[in-house]
Every structure is written in structure tokens, then in C-alpha cells.
Design goal:
The structure holds 4 protein chains of 4 kinds.
Chain A lengths: L1 H34 L3 H21 L3 H26 L14 H21 L13 H12 L1 H22 L10
Helix pairs in contact in A: 1-2, 2-3
Chain C lengths: L1 H6 L3 H17 L3 H28 L2 H4 L2 E10 L2 E9 L1 H24 L6 H20 L3 H19 L6 H32 L4 H7 L10 H18 L8 H4 L5 H10 L1 H11 L1 H4 L3 H22 L5 H21 L3 H28 L12 H4 L1 H15 L5 H18 L4 H28 L14 H16 L10 H5 L12 H24 L4 H9 L1 H8 L4 H47 L6 H31 L3
Antiparallel strand pairs in C: 1-2
Helix pairs in contact in C: 2-3, 2-6, 3-5, 3-6, 5-6, 5-12, 5-17, 5-22, 6-7, 7-8, 8-10, 10-13, 10-15, 12-17, 13-16, 13-17, 15-16, 15-21, 16-17, 16-20, 16-21, 17-19, 17-20, 17-22, 19-21, 19-22, 20-21, 20-24, 21-24, 25-26
Chain D lengths: L6 H21 L3 H25 L6 H31 L13
Helix pairs in contact in D: 1-2, 2-3
Classes of the chains: A mainly alpha, B mainly alpha, C mainly alpha, D mainly alpha.
Chain lengths: 181, 478, 644, 105
């Protein structure tokens, strides 16, 4: 019994350590994203953030989501961003991500907001304790996603269509006379 | 969990229509044949509107409460479809001459409406969020539609980033509410709060919800995007943005705040009252200084958002009724005004108020419609806006008398800047006296909006009664 | 047809509205077409109204059970306003009368206004007026009635000032509008009080609840106040003393307007309204006495003024005021039947006289002084003889219409006096004296204008058919319209009455008295103004009693008194207020306006165009909102959090 | 399961990430950087959603499903945002947000 307790303790402290490690890399990455002066470096730190996020998701028993996170963000979004940066940023890359003067107000503002939410969150009484998330989430997720959430799912499908047409429309070459090719 | 498809008639047919327009646009080769797309969408929308009206009594919920169909949703479905039809009808001229990609334009407009309709019917946060995003993304695309125009692109960029930020805030709020109340279903939240699931995070979440929705309805101080985006967007899109997006967000605001947080009413009504007051103040006062008519109408629409919020302050059936009534009449006044603006732009290439000089001689119908629409927005009896304001403000006379006074004073103030435009139109001599020929469909739209504004002002009872029934049913169904 | 007319009574006012819109928006450039449209619509309206009236008067059920239908117009919880239509014998009679007179006046106007640059507009206004008046008549609701009441006032304003190039016309229009506004304000207050106290403005509902006012917790004092406030509207509209001053000035308008609006229809709206609300007045006996007193006094007062006036239309205007006083008197002594009977006959003979006067003015190119006319009956036989018929009617010579109705009023006043109202004898004396004076001043006018030596030597000739035809029709009606209310065949009071139907015995003595008074008046006029070629006696009388003459000729100096009052008191006060206004109020108002504008200019610059500034404000607001919310909810939090 | 962690940990973490995102959105000049900051904020939302899912609705998966949709929409937003930035760069030759001030006052 005692051993079991110890085992649980062990598990708990492991969980705690994992959390703090992931949280640390997440926040460091995030801070680098917003402070680095080189846009490419910012995008690279963003990848760190996304991987740490995936780790947190695994810690929260959301393995499918972690996979999606890695695939979509680290794989798709970041590459898209890098391409974007390359396309528009032709000048010196080292000074590509400057900070404007608003940070003087923005910093205390965001600090206050963090303190406020953090304090409230830290003090909140939680009604329920953690439940057991079923293993193998993808098996459970698939039917729910495609059956119960079919309307949001279809909405996303249409959303993608709209966005795709929008993107194509916007990046189409424009001839000199102002008419599209 | 079976899906009751009969409840989804509007949604399914709208999606099919949007995709058909899309496909037709791809198949039809010639530019000229693309011009028929507008007519095609119009016919389709009229059929869908008829279907929606016909299925008025068809109520229920499907997918385990995730998707609702009640009188409330039907009312707003009809509202948004009416708005879309009027916008498409009124903007055919403008689209033919200013916009080249018809298939994307019409299909995106239809999908934006689909997003609104999903929002009305959402029974949970997930569906709600996706409807909202579908609408917002569609509007972003539409705003930047005139991609050869730097202003249009700038407006699109501003809308994208600010809407993205506000969506993030809204989502954060939704996630906190989800955590604090333990569910994403609006009805269950109400139940859980009543049972004492209470967490301080709920308060933070609520504040963020107000901010997120406040952005969408362009209530001060979350309104800053509106004038810029309204000015930069193609005028028909502005009209639809001002009407549809706002009405949809009000519907959701009612659904969420009365559906889930009625229990906590005393905490949020005061804040909403302040937002309403601030919106009226900022909207009306800043409108004074505008020289561009679209910006002026944008500030006026911020003020209108303030008036409508008053109905939410009351948080009872009279208040809901007021919101619904006002949203509906606002459709006609706004689309009437913006149709005039787009027709004038189409002919003169300018949105400056100064260029409206002598419009009464050049296009009497347009001048009269603009006059009536603006007087209705100012709340001059016997126009619809007066009745609407009356229904709204009467609900808070008891508890928020100061709000009523403020509203009345600012309504009077607003008459001044509306009349400035009127003076320019009716008194000043036109620089170019040539008659300004309106398109036939635009004239039809103008006549329709004019008739509706006058009719609903003189004889508001049928619509008021309808709104009343819906409001009672809505509150009973909570 | 009758069935149709009853079911679609709202078409009666709607047709003139349509003709108004058609003329204003479509046919305005084509003068003749416009008048044809107006007359066509009016004719339709008249046909409908007459079949409706026929339906009502042939079916006794309507007397007790008025036809009433309404639909909800606007409203909310606890406050509903129904717009509706109320058809009973009184409104049916009014519909018939108004549409008939309006039709005749429009036909007449095609001749009278011929060649006027704003010919079409004139017909548009007439149509709008007819529509409003007809709408007023059939309104079932006080608020609805009030709207039409204001609309007729507006039309009156527009039409009095129709000759906009004349300063006097513009001034008169303003005077009419402002004077009636004083009364309307009181009336609106009365309506508001009624709504607050009885929670309805529907006439039938009010009639049902007001008799039980004591049970509803309304004190008699309050009800008296309501009644008096309410009465202010009719006082102004129907030209009762002391708010009668606008009516004679209103003669600046075109003569057809005077005939239609300021003789036959609009000015009697006040009488009609008091008649409709009689259920309110009878509950407060004091208020009825006020009504009767004002009526009797106005009748005599205006008659004494009419005796010395020189302008033809002014004489008729004071005569109208006097006759309206008669009608009020009848209401005040509690007889709806007599009052509306006189209203009915008066409409015909007074419209007739106005139109005939218009015909005279038309021929004389607007020379208006009766002393400069004479012997016109030879040049203008139709105009002259129809005027004589009108004169016989108003003087009260049997069997012309005025005799029967005036006799009825004398009768009810006499009975009122006999039933223990001491003041009644005074009223009766006033009424009798007025009857004498009426006969005198009208026949003075007739003798001066139509008989005696000819004076006008330019080419006077009879007016065209379009103008004489309405005269003839009205002359016939002035002859026979009273026959439905003779003491022997008293159809009138079985149809229109308040309370029990009045069925008095014919009072032969009273009839004799009134005939004698009328004949005496005519005789005196004959002696002074016809037999005496030089009018020496009349002149010397005026010389002998200059005070009396001037008092009458100068209309008791009422206008001067008002002018003095406005000049000295109001203007003096105004000067003070003006200074106050200029420096303090204007300062504040302009300051506020500048502040508003300035703040608009200032706020505008918040909109910097910089996206991230917007975002910054957004998040600042989020922060403030969150903090405010948390503070606001701290208590609720403690309370609800404890439940957990 | 009385784990060492409770939702507060995750909420505080997400609050930190969220506010860092806000800071970035407000203080970076470059449009792409602002777009990235919005992604950070949405990531913070996802932490909340998944954490609450674990603690409150483990069977219903509401939070996880919500998060999947949020990720999708976020990706769409980035795509559209980049397209707009490219179009703007072509038209107006800038990616700095403060240069976008044709529409003001």
C-alpha cells in the first residue's frame, strides 16, 4: 500500500517536473518570439513553442492533439511563415523584427493582465478533480468529431474553401492595367 | 444521435447555393456570363428565404442540444437573409463595375451568411465559435476584395489582425467559462451556475466575452476598427458588415448572456449599460467631425450599437423584443443609406460628403432615401427608428434613467450631423448638374427600404408583436 | 354599396390622401388634371360617405350600437393605442356634410382659382385638408383624433397663408397657428391625463369608464381639470372667446378656404369634439356651465362686433364665431342634438354665404368694403338671390334651415333655465339678443351689397357656372336641410342625441318669438340701410354713440389689447429674457455645441489609423473591464463562492 | 486521481503565454510578427481547453475537439494573413503596420 503511495508520489513528482520543464521551454520560446530582432529567429523559436505545447498536450492525455499540433503548426504553419518572411522581407534580416514605442504601455498592461488572471486562477476553487481521460484518444475522437460535431466540421470545411479562394484572389498577379491575369 | 435534417433546411440549402455559385462560376467561362451569378444567387436566396419563412413553426434541437432551431433563430435567419438579398439587389451596379471576381464575391457573401446562421443556432461554444469564424473570415476576404485598391487591402489587414486578436480574447474567455462552469453547452452552463458552480475565473471569462462580442458589434471602446474597415471595404460589403455581422453578434450576445448567465445578471448589466453609454457618446460625438460619408455612417453605427445594447441592459423580454425590433429596422435604414452611397460612388468616384451637393436635383430618389434613412437612425417620428428607440429605451426607464436621458440627448445631437448631409444634398448647388442615373435594381432596393422604414414607423405593431412572441418564447425556453 | 361603404369607411379619408399624393408627386405641372384628380377623389369619397350615411340612418341599430373597428397601432405592455374607426349617426352626418361641402368647394375653386400659379398645389392642400377632416371625424381614439386635429390645423395654416406674397396672409397664418396651438397644448395635457388616469384613449372605452371615475380613484377636482384643459382645444379651434382672434384674420386666405375650413368644417371640429366627449363634461357640472357661458358670451359678443364691420368677409367671420358660440351654448346646456343640428344647417348656409361673397369679390376684383358696393343683385342675380336665401336661413325665417336649428337651441336653453339653472335665463337672453343682432347684421350686409343704388361701375358680371352651381346646390340645402329636424317630424333628435332622446312638444310661443326677433332685425336693417338711401340715420347713430360704435368697430379692442400685451408685457419680458438668453443661455448652448463639435474633433484624432493603437485601446479596455467586473462581483463572488 | 497538478497550474501557464502574445501583438512593428503573436495567444487558449477537458469533461472530449477546431482556424488565419501581407507588400511596399494609415480620422 505504502509502496503504491510512493509510486503515485513518484508519478506525481515526475508529472510536476515534466510540467515545469515544458512550461519553462514554452515561455522561454514565447518570450524569444516576441523579443528577438530577427524575424527568422522568431519563427524558429515559435517552433520550440509549438513542440513544448505538444508536450503539454501529452501531459494532459491529448496525444492526438499533440500530433495535430506538431503536424499543422510545426510542419505547416511555420514553413508557411518562413516562406512568407522570405517573400516580403528583402532588406537586412537582422533588423527585420523591430519593436515600436508602444511597448512602454504594452509591457505594464500585459503584466497587469497576467497578474490579474494568474491571481484569480491561482485562487480558484476547482469543483471537480481530474478525471481519467480514456487512452487512445483518436479512437474516441473520430466518431465524436464526425458525428456529434458534424456541423462545426462542415463549417470548417467551408471556412477552408472561403479562405483558399481569398488567398488565391489576393496573391494573384496583377497586370499593369490593374486587371488580373 | 440522429440528425433532424428538417431543422437544417436553411443551412443546407444555403451551403448548396454557395457551392453551386462557386462551381457555376468556375464552369462558366466568359466574363459576361459571370454577371448572371448575382441574379442566380438572388433567386436562390429568395427561395431559401421562402423556405425559412415556411418552416417558421419547425422547432426543436438536434445533435444533443448542440444545434437549436427556435423562433429566435428563425427570426434572425429571416433578418440576415433579408439583409443579404437587399445588399445583393442594391449592389449589382457597383459589383458589375467595381469588382471583377463575381464568383468569389457572391459565394463568399453567401458563406458569410451561413456563418451567421450557424451562430444563431449554436447551442454550444464550439459551434458558436466556428459560425463566428466562418462569418469573420468571409468578411475579411470581402473587405480586401478590391485588391488593386490600397485602402481596401489596408482595411482587410486591419480587420484580419484586430478580429484575430478579438477572437483570441473571446476564445480565451470561452475557455475560462468552459473551465469554470465545466461545460461548453450554453444551457448546461446556466444549470451549473444555478447549482453553485462558481469560480472567479468565470468573471474574467465573462469580461473577455463582453470584449470579444463588443468588438463584433463595434461597441465602444472596442469599436476602433469599425470606421477604418467600413471606409476601406467595398460599400456593399460595408453595408452587410454593418447590418449582418452586428445583428448576428447581438443574437449570440443575447443567447449567451441570457441563456447562460441570466443568473449573474446584476453583475453584467451595469457594465453593459456603461458600454452602451460610451458607444452612444463616442459614436455620436465623433460622427460630427467626419467628412467622409462612410466614416460618418460608421460612427453612427457605433452609436446605434449603443442604442441596441440598451435592450440588453434590461435583460428581460421587453429588452429582447427591443433588440430584435431595432435590429430589423436597422437593416432597412442602413442598407438604404449604403446603397445610395455605393451608387453615388459608382458614378462620382467619391465618398466625400461635399460631393453630395445637390444630390436632390441629380437623383431625387437617392436623396430622399438617404434623408429618410438618416432621420430614422436619428429617431425622428414617425419613422421606424423612433419606434425602435422607444421600445429600447422604455425598458430601462425604471432602473437606468440616466441612460435614457443620455440616449435622448445624444439622439438630438445626432440629428445635427445627419442634417448636415441633408443640407448639402438639398441646399447646395451641384458641381455637375447632370442627372445621376440609378440602376434599376438599386432603385428597387431604395424603394423597398424606404417603404419598409416608413411602414414600420407608422404601423410597427405586426413586427413588434412578432418580436414579442419570439422574445417570450425565447425566455420560456431557457 | 352600403355594405361596402360601412366596411370600408376608411376609404373615405384615404381617397383624398391619394389625390393629394398624386397631385404632389405626379400631376402637379398640369393644373386642370390636378383639379380633376382632386374632384374625382372627392366625388368618390362623397358617394361613399353618402351611402354610408344612408346605411346608418336607415338602420336604427346604429343609434345604440356604433360601428367600431380598430387595429392595434402601437403599444407595449400596459399601453396600447388602437387606431380605429367609429361610425355612429353623428360621425356619419359629419362625413356626409364634410365630403359634400368639400366637393362643392372644390368645384367652386376651379372657377375661383383659375389662373393662379399654384393652382395644383391649392387642390392638393384642399385634398389633404379634406382627408384630415374626414379622418378626424371617424377617429375612434383620442390620440388618433389629435393627430388629425393637428393635421387640419396644419392645412389651415398652409391655406390661410396660401398667397405667400401677401405679408398680411403670412401674418394671419402664423396668428392662426399660434393661437390654436395654445388651445392644443391644453388639450394634449387633457389627453395625457386621461391616458394616465383611465389607461385608455378609446372613445367607447372612455365613455364606459368615465362615469365610474370615483371608483377608479379619480377625484372630481382632477376630472374638472381634465375637462377644462380639454375644452381649451375646442375653444381655440372653434374660435370661442377669448381665443377667437385668429378666425377673422384667417379670411386672408382664398375665399373657398374660408368657406370650407373657416366656416363649415374645421372650426366646427371643436364643437364636434366636445360633443364626442360630452360623457366627460356631464360628469363635471361645473365644466358644462363654463362651456355654456363661453358659448353664450361668444355668440353675443361676436354678433355685436359683426354689426359694424365693413369688410364683407370679416362680417361673415364674426358671424361664424357667433354661430359657433350658439353651438357651444347648446352643448353647455347638455343638448348634443341641438348643437349638431345647428352645426349641420350652419355648414350649408354659411358655406353658401362665403362662396357667394367670394363670387362678389371675384367680380369686384377683391374690393371688400360693403359701403362701396350696392345694387349688385341686378348684375349678379344668382349670387345675389342665393345670398338672400342664406340670409333668410341664418336670420331664422321659417322654413329655411337656420330657423329650425336656432329654434331648437333657444328651446333647450329655455328648458335648461326652467329646470332650475338660474344662469339659464341669462343664456337665453344672450341667445335671443344674438338672434336679433344676427338678422340685423346679415341683412345690413345684404341691403348694402345687393340692393340700393349701384356703385361699382366697372364690368361686373355673374360668375361662371363652376362657381354658381355650388351656390345653387347650397341654396337648396339651406332651404330644406332643416326640415329633418322640425318639432313635428323630429327625426334628427332620434338619431343624434346624448342621453335620452329629446322629444319636446313644439313650443309655438318660442317659435313666434324667434320669428319676431328675426323680422325685427331685418326690419331695422331695412329701415337703416335700404329705405334710407343716404344711410344718414346709420351714420348719425354712429356719431351719436361713438364709444359704442368704436367699441364694436374696433372689436372691443381685443386685438389691440393682445398687441399691447405682447408688445409691452411679453416683449418687455422678452427683452429681459432676450438678454438673459443671448448672454447666458446662448452662451451655454453655443458652448455646449462648441463642446460637442470640439469633442468630436478631438475624439476624431483618437482614430489614428494605426492598427496597434486600436489594439492597445482594446486591451486596455479588456483590462479595465476585467478589473471592474472583479470589483463589482466581489460580493456576489463571496456569496456564490461559498455555496460550492 | 489526485495528481500533483491541478487546473490552476495550466491556467497560470496559459495566462502567461496569452499575455506574452498580447505583448507581441502590441509592440512588434512587423505584420508577420503580429500574426505570430496571435498564434501564441491561440496556443494559450488551447492549453486551457485541453486542461479543462482532462479535469472536467474527460469522456465528452469537448475541450479537445474545441482545440482541434481552434488549431484549424488558426492555420487558416495565418494563411489568409500572409496572403494579405504579400498583397499589401506589392501594393504599398511595406510590412510595417504603422505605415498603414491611409484610413484614419
Amino acid at each position: 500500500m505504502k509502496q503504491l503511495q510512493g509510486c503515485a508520489d513518484m508519478e506525481n513528482s515526475l508529472e510536476l517536473i515534466a510540467f515545469f520543464l515544458l512550461a519553462g521551454s514554452l515561455l522561454t520560446g514565447a518570450l524569444m518570439v516576441v523579443t528577438l530582432k530577427n524575424l527568422v529567429n522568431s519563427v524558429l523559436s515559435l517552433i520550440v513553442v509549438f513542440f513544448s505545447l505538444a508536450g503539454i498536450f501529452i501531459l494532459l492525455n491529448a496525444d492526438f492533439l499533440a500530433a495535430v499540433q506538431v503536424l499543422v503548426y510545426a510542419g505547416g504553419v511555420c514553413i508557411m511563415l518562413v516562406f512568407g518572411v522570405m517573400l516580403v522581407q528583402r532588406k537586412d534580416m537582422r533588423e527585420s523584427n523591430p519593436v515600436n514605442r508602444r511597448f512602454l504601455i504594452a509591457a505594464p498592461l500585459t503584466g497587469a493582465l497576467f497578474l490579474l488572471i494568474g491571481l484569480v486562477a491561482a485562487k480558484s476553487p476547482w469543483v471537480k478533480e481530474a478525471g481519467e481521460v480514456p487512452e487512445n484518444t483518436i479512437e474516441h475522437l473520430a466518431p465524436i468529431l464526425l458525428r456529434d460535431y458534424v456541423i462545426p466540421f462542415e463549417a470548417v470545411a467551408i471556412l477552408l474553401t472561403v479562405a483558399l479562394t481569398g488567398v488565391l484572389l489576393l496573391v494573384k498577379e496583377v497586370k499593369d492595367n490593374g486587371r488580373s491575369s | 444521435m440522429n440528425i433532424d435534417f428538417s431543422l437544417l433546411i436553411t443551412e443546407i440549402s444555403l451551403a448548396i447555393l454557395g457551392l453551386t455559385v462557386f462551381t457555376l462560376g468556375l464552369i462558366l467561362p466568359a466574363k459576361s456570363s459571370q454577371k448572371g451569378l448575382g441574379t442566380f444567387s438572388l433567386c436562390g436566396l429568395l427561395v431559401i428565404l421562402a423556405l425559412t419563412i415556411a418552416s417558421w413553426g419547425n422547432q426543436g434541437e438536434t445533435l444533443g442540444g448542440m444545434y437549436l432551431a427556435d423562433y429566435f433563430t428563425s427570426f434572425f435567419k429571416i433578418l440576415s437573409l433579408t439583409a443579404l438579398i437587399l445588399v445583393i439587389l442594391g449592389s449589382k451596379n457597383y459589383v458589375n463595375s467595381q469588382i471583377e471576381n463575381h464568383l468569389e464575391y457572391y459565394s463568399t457573401l453567401i458563406f458569410a451568411t451561413l456563418g451567421m446562421i450557424i451562430m444563431f443556432s449554436a447551442g454550444d461554444f464550439i459551434t458558436l465559435y466556428l459560425g463566428l469564424e466562418l462569418m469573420t473570415i468571409s468578411f475579411i476576404v470581402l473587405t480586401s476584395f478590391r485588391r488593386t485598391n490600397g485602402k481596401s487591402l489596408e482595411a482587410g489587414m486591419k480587420y484580419l489582425l484586430l478580429a484575430g486578436l478579438s477572437s483570441a480574447v473571446l476564445l480565451y474567455g470561452l475557455s475560462l467559462v468552459y473551465g469554470a462552469a465545466g461545460t461548453v453547452f450554453i444551457k448546461e452552463i446556466a444549470g451549473n451556475i444555478a447549482q453553485g458552480y462558481f469560480n472567479p475565473l468565470l468573471i474574467v471569462g465573462l469580461a473577455m466575452l463582453i470584449a470579444g462580442f463588443g468588438f463584433k458589434i463595434s461597441a465602444a471602446p472596442f469599436h476602433m476598427w469599425a470606421p477604418d474597415v467600413y471606409e476601406g471595404a467595398p460599400t456593399p460589403v460595408t453595408a452587410f458588415l454593418a447590418v449582418g455581422s452586428k445583428a448576428a453578434s447581438f443574437a449570440v450576445l443575447i443567447r449567451v448572456f441570457l441563456g447562460a448567465f441570466l443568473e449573474m445578471q446584476e453583475q453584467w448589466t451595469m457594465l453593459i449599460a456603461f458600454l452602451a453609454a460610451l458607444s452612444m457618446l463616442i459614436g455620436n460625438l465623433t460622427a460630427f467631425a467626419q467628412t467622409n460619408i462612410k466614416r460618418m455612417l460608421a460612427f453612427s453605427s457605433i452609436a446605434q450599437a449603443g442604442y441596441i445594447l440598451v435592450g440588453l441592459v434590461a435583460a428581460n423580454e421587453a429588452g429582447i423584443k427591443g433588440v430584435m425590433f431595432y435590429s430589423f429596422i436597422y437593416v432597412f435604414a442602413t442598407i438604404g443609406a449604403f446603397t445610395v452611397v455605393s451608387e453615388v460612388y459608382n458614378k462620382t468616384g467619391s465618398d466625400d460628403i461635399a460631393d453630395y451637393a445637390g444630390l436632390s436635383q441629380r437623383a431625387p430618389l437617392a436623396a430622399v432615401v438617404l434623408l429618410i434613412s438618416m432621420l430614422s437612425m436619428a429617431g425622428i417620428p414617425p419613422l421606424a427608428g423612433f419606434t425602435g428607440k422607444y421600445y429600447l429605451f422604455i425598458t430601462v426607464v425604471q432602473d437606468y434613467l440616466w441612460l435614457v436621458y443620455l440616449g435622448l440627448i445624444l439622439s438630438m445631437v445626432s440629428v445635427y450631423y445627419y442634417l448636415r448631409v441633408v443640407l448639402v444634398m438639398f441646399r447646395d448647388e451641384p458641381a455637375d448638374p447632370a442627372p445621376l442615373k440609378l440602376g434599376s435594381t438599386a432603385s428597387l432596393t431604395l424603394w423597398l427600404t424606404l417603404a419598409a422604414t416608413l411602414f414600420l414607423g407608422i404601423y410597427p405593431w405586426p413586427l413588434a408583436k412578432l418580436a414579442n412572441t419570439v422574445a417570450i418564447a425565447f425566455l420560456a425556453g431557457l | 354599396m352600403i355594405e361596402f361603404a360601412l366596411n370600408y369607411a376608411w376609404l373615405v379619408p384615404l381617397l383624398p390622401v391619394l389625390s393629394f399624393l398624386t397631385i404632389v408627386f405626379l400631376t402637379r405641372p398640369w393644373a386642370r388634371l390636378s383639379s380633376a384628380v382632386a374632384i374625382g377623389a372627392m366625388l368618390g369619397s362623397f358617394l361613399l360617405a353618402s351611402s354610408l350615411a344612408w346605411g346608418v340612418f336607415t338602420n336604427p341599430a346604429f343609434i345604440e350600437e356604433p360601428l367600431h373597428y380598430s387595429l392595434r397601432w402601437l403599444g407595449m405592455e400596459g399601453f396600447t393605442v388602437n387606431a380605429g374607426i367609429l361610425i355612429d349617426p353623428a360621425s356619419a352626418m359629419m362625413l356626409f356634410m364634410v365630403s359634400l361641402v368639400a366637393l362643392l368647394v372644390q368645384i367652386y375653386s376651379t372657377g375661383y382659382m383659375k389662373g393662379d400659379p399654384h393652382y395644383s398645389l391649392f387642390f392638393a392642400y384642399l385634398s389633404l385638408f379634406a382627408a384630415s377632416m374626414l379622418g378626424l371625424v371617424i377617429s375612434s381614439n383620442l390620440l388618433q383624433m389629435f393627430i388629425f386635429w393637428e393635421l387640419v390645423g396644419l392645412c389651415s395654416y398652409l391655406l390661410i397663408g396660401f398667397y405667400t406674397y401677401k405679408v398680411s396672409a403670412r401674418e394671419a397664418a402664423k396668428k392662426a397657428f399660434i393661437t390654436t396651438r395654445i388651445g392644443d397644448f391644453g388639450m394634449l395635457l387633457g389627453i395625457l391625463f386621461l391616458q394616465i388616469q383611465f389607461n385608455t384613449l378609446d372613445l367607447l372605452e372612455l365613455a364606459a369608464v368615465i362615469p365610474n371615475f370615483a371608483q377608479l380613484g379619480v377625484s372630481l377636482g382632477l376630472l374638472t381639470l381634465i375637462a377644462i384643459l380639454f375644452f381649451l382645444g375646442p375653444v381655440a379651434k372653434s374660435g370661442q372667446f377669448p381665443l377667437h382672434v385668429w378666425l377673422p384674420d384667417a379670411m386672408e386666405g382664398p375665399t373657398p378656404v374660408s368657406a370650407l375650413i373657416h366656416a363649415a368644417t374645421m372650426v366646427v371640429a371643436g364643437v364636434y369634439l366636445v360633443g364626442r366627449m360630452l360623457f366627460l363634461f356631464v360628469e363635471v357640472p361645473g365644466s358644462l356651465t363654463v362651456v355654456a357661458f363661453i358659448g353664450a358670451f361668444t355668440a353675443l359678443f361676436a354678433a355685436t362686433i359683426a354689426v359694424t364691420q365693413r369688410e364683407i368677409k370679416r362680417i361673415l367671420a364674426y358671424s361664424t364665431v357667433s354661430q359657433l358660440g350658439y353651438m357651444m351654448l347648446a352643448l353647455g346646456v347638455g343638448s348634443l342634438s341641438a348643437s349638431l343640428f345647428h352645426l349641420w344647417t350652419h355648414a350649408f348656409f354659411k358655406a353658401l354665404m362665403f362662396l357667394a361673397a367670394g363670387s362678389v369679390l371675384h367680380a369686384l376684383h377683391n374690393k371688400a368694403d360693403v359701403w362701396e358696393m350696392g345694387g349688385l343683385i341686378r348684375k349678379m342675380p344668382i349670387t345675389g338671390w342665393t345670398f338672400v336665401v342664406g340670409g333668410l336661413a341664418i336670420a331664422g325665417i321659417p322654413p329655411f334651415a337656420g330657423f329650425w336649428s336656432k329654434d331648437e337651441i333657444l328651446l333647450v336653453t329655455w328648458e335648461y333655465a326652467r329646470h332650475g339653472h338660474a344662469l339659464g335665463y341669462l343664456f337665453f337672453a344672450f341667445a335671443a339678443l344674438t338672434a336679433f343682432l344676427t338678422a340685423f347684421y346679415i341683412w345690413r350686409l345684404i341691403f348694402l351689397v345687393f340692393f340700393g343704388p349701384e356703385k361699382a361701375n366697372d364690368h361686373v358680371h355673374e360668375s361662371p357656372l363652376s362657381m354658381t352651381l355650388p351656390l345653387l346646390v347650397l341654396a337648396v340645402l339651406s332651404g330644406v336641410a332643416g326640415l329633418i329636424g322640425t318639432p313635428w317630424t323630429n327625426l334628427w333628435s332620434t338619431w343624434i342625441h346624448f342621453g335620452d332622446a329629446h322629444s319636446g312638444e313644439p313650443a309655438y310661443l318660442l317659435m313666434l318669438l324667434s320669428v319676431v326677433l328675426a323680422l325685427a332685425g331685418i326690419g331695422l336693417a331695412f329701415i337703416l340701410y335700404c329705405k334710407d338711401q343716404d344711410k344718414q340715420a346709420a351714420r348719425s347713430l354712429a356719431k351719436k354713440y361713438p364709444a359704442l360704435y368704436n367699441l364694436s368697430y374696433r372689436k372691443y379692442y381685443i386685438d389691440e389689447a393682445y398687441t399691447w400685451f405682447t408688445r409691452k408685457i411679453v416683449d418687455g419680458g422678452a427683452k429681459v429674457i432676450y438678454l438673459f438668453d443671448i448672454y447666458l443661455v446662448d452662451g451655454v448652448v453655443n458652448g455646449l455645441a462648441a463642446l460637442t463639435k470640439g469633442s468630436g474633433q478631438g475624439l476624431k484624432y483618437l482614430q489614428t489609423g494605426k492598427l496597434q493603437t486600436y489594439a492597445l485601446i482594446f486591451f486596455l479596455a479588456v483590462l479595465v473591464l476585467t478589473v471592474a467586473f472583479n470589483l463589482d462581483s466581489a460580493n456576489a463572488l463571496a456569496h456564490l463562492g461559498g455555496v460550492k | 486521481m489526485a495528481g500533483a497538478l491541478n487546473p490552476s497550474y495550466f491556467v497560470v501557464l496559459s495566462a502567461a503565454l496569452f499575455t506574452i502574445g498580447i505583448y507581441g501583438a502590441l509592440s512588434k512593428k512587423n505584420a508577420i510578427a503580429v500574426l505570430i503573436s496571435i498564434e501564441l495567444m491561440l496556443g494559450a487558449v488551447n492549453i486551457n481547453l485541453v486542461a479543462f477537458n482532462k479535469y472536467f469533461t474527460p469522456e465528452a472530449f469537448s475541450g479537445q475537439i474545441f482545440a482541434i477546431f481552434v488549431i484549424t482556424v488558426a492555420a487558416v488565419e495565418v494563411g489568409l494573413g500572409l496572403a494579405l501581407i504579400i498583397a499589401l507588400c506589392r501594393r504599398r511596399n511595406t510590412t510595417a503596420l504603422d505605415d498603414l494609415d491611409w484610413l484614419k480620422w
